[in-house]
Structure formats: structure tokens, C-alpha cells
Design a protein that fits this description.
By secondary structure, the chain is α/β, with parallel strands linked by helices. The chain has 2 domains: about 60 residues, Orthogonal Bundle (DNA polymerase, domain 1), CATH 1.10.150; about 280 residues, Aldolase class I (TIM Barrel, Alpha-Beta Barrel), CATH 3.20.20. It contains 12 helices and 14 strands. Strands 3-4-5-6-9-10-11-12-13-14 form a 10-stranded mixed sheet. A two-stranded parallel sheet has the order 1-2. Strands 7-8 form a two-stranded antiparallel ribbon. A hairpin with a 4-residue loop joins strand 4 and strand 5. The relative contact order is 0.13.
Length: about 350
């Protein structure tokens, strides 16, 4: 476990319902072991995986190439969905849809579905709450309650497709929680989601965000992972970043960007540097010039993100301050864009809907 991060309650495989196992919490070997334990041939595991991840079924009755007796046994010992829809908001301005999902233990998480030309992008959560307490983040108001299981991560994708009736083309792991804090469960889920025998999403269309867990970035490198990586930087000095993001006290900017360079070189991918603009905190011309210097020589692009105001002391800069920051970076050697947030009329930033519902 990374230093300075409190260990949450263990991620429970969804085994409520009289001991039933959640199929999507299992990898291929796990499904095969379950099938064999039910006195069936191992090849049935491949058929089950196809029904779950390619046909996105919600009941065992839909698995029509399985014998009825086997489907009955599966119904007695296993369950398909690990979460259920609890609430939905839909933007009247850009069509963004935000889903509140209820987990089997009653806790709730959020996912956001966004539409942009040819892409349908889903932003998913990896934890219920978050331990890192970034000062400007709504999810941080919740604290960390637990990790999501692999099935709970996967089901956000599958249920969002069922509800919206669309095919998701891009995945961003930027919702509630610090993705790399739930490393093992996330990697298992992404392996299924990017497998040709699973959901078959291209790794190039998966972005994993981190607030700066350098040890886990190094593990990504060691394991040869090639997902696109997004770094939440949000400040240009260690003093300010430590104030905004306590994780910086463990891994300061220099160590974080060194790890980012190593990952970009090893994976042959371009890093995304996320920079949330906070009024009067990190949005000065001096900040812009320092940011330009920090990213020089890094295979990356920079996303400037005007803050979505939540419930703390931070505010969104005026549009002129946002544009001034952007203009100051006009000579930056890497691409710089302003990411105007989608779904602002429906609290689409991660954690906003659930904390508002809870009255936090």
C-alpha cells in the first residue's frame, strides 16, 4: 500500500444474496473454476463471458446456448449485475447524462456519459469516495468508504450502455476515487474491458487518471501497461500543490513528472496534464509560464479545466482570466486546450451529485 494513504474497508466481492458470486468480479480463470465446480465443461466459461461482456445480458434466461439445467444452476450460485440504476440527470445543453448507481450494499457511485462528434465517452468511478482529500474535489468531502470490485467497475460501462442504448467508444477513469489506489481491481476490470473476448475496447481509447501516485505509475511501467495516462497537476509549485493536493507531500512535482516521462517513453503514449484553474490560486500569468516550463520536453498535451464550483472555498475564474492564462501559453511546445466542462447544468463533475444528495 502506498504511504500516507489509509487502507479502506476491503473491496467485498458481491456475495450477498445467500452466498451468490458476482460473475463480473471473476477473471476468466475464476469463471472457469466456477463452471467446473458446477460439473460443466470448461468451454462454457467462454460462452458465459461472451454473453456478459459482448451481448451485455441482464439475465441467465438470455444465455440461450447454455443448457437450461446449467442456467438454473448458475441462477442458484451466481448473479450478473453488481449495481443498479438509482437516479439520472440529463443536460439540456449538451446531452450529457449522469447516472447514480446503487451498489449491492446500498452505497452509491456516479458515472457520466458524454457525447462529442463520433465519440461516446463514459467517465467511471473506482472507489466509493476518496482518501486523498484534494481540497477542491467534491468526492473528497465523502472520505473513502471502500474500493469498487472489478465487477462494479465493469458494470458502470455495461449498465450505461443498456440505459442509454448507445455503444461506448471511449473510457475515462476519472470519476469518484483515485484509480491507482484501487490498482489491482482496476487492472482486472480494464483487462476485461479491453480484451477481444471481453468488451473489446481499444487500450488507446482508455484514459486512466491519477493525482500522483508515483509508485503505482512505476508499477504500470514495470507491468507493461499501455493505457493513456492523465496526471492531475493543478499547480506549478510544490507549496501550492501540497496545499491543494496533500499527495504532493509524498511525491512532489519533480518526482511525479519524472515518472510521467518514464511512462510516456515506456508506453509510447502521450500523457495528458490536467490543470484545474482555481480563481486566485493557480491562474496567474506566472503560473502559466511555470506550467509551460514544466511540460517542456514531456510527451504530453495540457488540458486547462475551469473549475466546477462545489461547496468549499474555491471558485471558477472569470472567463477573461481563463483566456489570459491560455494566451500566456501560446508558445508552449506541446498542445494546450481549454476543456470547457460538459453537463454543468446537472452537477456533472465527479462527486457533485452524490454529495448534494447527501446534503454534504
Amino acid at each position: 500500500m502506498d504511504e500516507k494513504i489509509k487502507n479502506p474497508a476491503p473491496a467485498r466481492a458481491a456475495v450477498e444474496e445467500a452466498g451468490k458470486v458476482a460473475l463480473k468480479d471473476l477473471d476468466v480463470q475464476g469463471i472457469t473454476a466456477l463452471v467446473v465446480s458446477l460439473a460443466e465443461k470448461p468451454f462454457r466459461a467462454r460462452q458465459i463471458a461472451e454473453w456478459l461482456f459482448q451481448h451485455n445480458v441482464s439475465s441467465f434466461e438470455q444465455m440461450t446456448n447454455l443448457p437450461k439445467a446449467f442456467r438454473d444452476k448458475l441462477r442458484q450460485h451466481a448473479l450478473i449485475d453488481t449495481l443498479s440504476p438509482a437516479y439520472e440527470q440529463r443536460s439540456q445543453t449538451d446531452g450529457t447524462r449522469k447516472f447514480l448507481f446503487r451498489l449491492r450494499d446500498g452505497l452509491k457511485i456516479e458515472s457520466v456519459l458524454m457525447f462529442d462528434e463520433e465519440r461516446v465517452t463514459l467517465c467511471i468511478s473506482t472507489q466509493v469516495g476518496c482518501a486523498l482529500d484534494c481540497r477542491f474535489c467534491a468526492t473528497g468531502l465523502m472520505g473513502l468508504q471502500r474500493h469498487l470490485t472489478p465487477g462494479e467497475i465493469i458494470d458502470q460501462v455495461l449498465l450505461s450502455e443498456r440505459i442509454a442504448g448507445v455503444r461506448i467508444t471511449n473510457l475515462v477513469v476519472m470519476g469518484m476515487g483515485e484509480p491507482l489506489h484501487n490498482y489491482d481491481n482496476l487492472m482486472q476490470a480494464l483487462s476485461v474491458l479491453t480484451s477481444p473476448q471481453g468488451f473489446a475496447l481499444s487500450k488507446k481509447r482508455v484514459v486512466v487518471s491519477t493525482s500522483g501516485l508515483v509508485a503505482k505509475i512505476e508499477r504500470l511501467i514495470a507491468e507493461g501497461r499501455k493505457y493513456r495516462l492523465a496526471i492531475s497537476l493543478n499547480a506549478t509549485t510544490d507549496a501550492m500543490r501540497s496545499k491543494l493536493m496533500p499527495v504532493n507531500q509524498r511525491w512532489p512535482i519533480s518526482e511525479l513528472l519524472a515518472a510521467a516521462r518514464n511512462y510516456a517513453d515506456a508506453s509510447k503514449t502521450r500523457i495528458t496534464i490536467e490543470y484545474v484553474l482555481l480563481d486566485g490560486m493557480n491562474d496567474t500569468p506566472e503560473d502559466a509560464r511555470r506550467l509551460m516550463k514544466l511540460v517542456t520536453g514531456l510527451r504530453c498535451k495540457v488540458n486547462l479545466i475551469p473549475y466546477n464550483t462545489t461547496y468549499r472555498e474555491f471558485a471558477r475564474p472569470a472567463e477573461e482570466r481563463i483566456l489570459r492564462f491560455y494566451r500566456e501559453m501560446k508558445n508552449c511546445p506541446v498542445p494546450v486546450t481549454i476543456r470547457w466542462s460538459k453537463g454543468r447544468d446537472i452537477d456533472a463533475a465527479c462527486g457533485q451529485l452524490i454529495t448534494k444528495e447527501q446534503g454534504t
